[in-house]
Amino acid sequence: MSKILVSIFLSLIALNASSAEKFTALTGKNVLTEEAQELPFASSPATVAIFMSAKCPCSASHEGLLKELSQQFKNFNFVAIHSNADEDAETTKAHFQQSQLSFPVIADARSHWADKLGALKTPHVYVFNSSGEIVYQGGVTDSHVGPSAKKHFLKEVLEDLQAGKTPRHKEGRALGCYIQRAENS
């Protein structure tokens, strides 16, 4: 069975499990500071977790939009998760230093979070409420190239949450580069 089919199968299992599962926090080592990072969901009305890559042009094309959203929705926690096993620590650190995201980037050792949540591509977003339930998962936008998007899924979900409404989107198609997992993840 190919790696892609195995990843899709694992993602479907994880998605079914995670849809009912509640999480308390996202944890990992900060890519830039190398310090342990913990983002408890209860500390914010919503937490936006974005799987990102240091090499994927689709991921990079959404960085500007994500910076804008993190500034516009300051009452929500934002965190990037880096899961790609084929991107070494040096390259990853250099990319995220240069991109100057306004939120932390955590390393996802052995694709733990990617497997647990079912993330397949970068960028792939998960929005959690303060109880740790997933209220949205999918793409940031409807485009491979963020600035040319016609539909801004994540922005609309965050607007709804900020207004105290149920998000109009529960999921959206994630477009981008496949997350390369470690051989034994």
Essential attributes:
6 helices, seven-stranded mixed β-sheet, disordered N terminus, two-stranded antiparallel ribbon, 9 strands, 185 residues, alpha+beta
Structural description of this entry:
The protein has six helices and nine strands. It has 185 residues and is α+β, with helices and mostly antiparallel strands. A hairpin with a 5-residue loop joins strand 1 (25-30) and strand 2 (36-40). 40% of the residues are buried. The longest helix has 18 residues, at 3-20. The chain is globular. Residues 1-19 have low confidence and may be disordered. The strands form two sheets. A seven-stranded mixed β-sheet has the order 2-1-5-4-3-7-8. Strands 6-9 form a two-stranded antiparallel ribbon.
Q: What integer is the average pLDDT?
A: 88
Provide the structure class. alpha+beta
| Poorly predicted runs | 1-19
Helix segment tally = 6
Please provide the ordered H/E string of secondary-structure elements.
Answer: HEEEHHEHEHEEEHE
User: Shape from CA axes?
Assistant: globular
Order of strands in the sheet with most strands: 2-1-5-4-3-7-8
Number of strands: 9
N- and C-termini, Cα separation? 16 Å
| Biggest β-sheet strands, sense, barrel | 7 strands, mixed
Assembly of the depicted chains: single chain
* Helical content band: 25-40%
